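hiii, so i know i said id send this last week but things got crazy w the move. better late than never?? heres the sequnce for the chain we talked about at the cafe, plus the structure i predicted for it. fair warning i was half asleep when i ran it
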Amino acid sequence: MSVKAAVISQIQQIAQEQKKQLPALTEELVLLDSGLDSLAIAILVARLEETLGIDPFTESNEVAYPGTLGEFIRFYEHAAEAHAVDTRQTG
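okay and structure toks below
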């Protein structure tokens, strides 16, 4: 499963569990307009760490928080790429 597919799938699952309506999940969607509150975003990050084995928020030196869904996905994709490189170097 791609990083993007994992992110989208988890967002949809969390929204369904919390009975929240989601707008179209486009890359331009502002996360604050997604219908997910801070608790839902925290759940999303925790589930993505379980699914993907990474948490870019604790592993990154970046201070800025992704503002759109596309930025959020790319943040995870870059962390996954860096993690794969780190794994190959130590393995």
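btw Helices lie at 3-17, 38-52, 56-59, 69-90. thought thatd interest u
miss u guys!!
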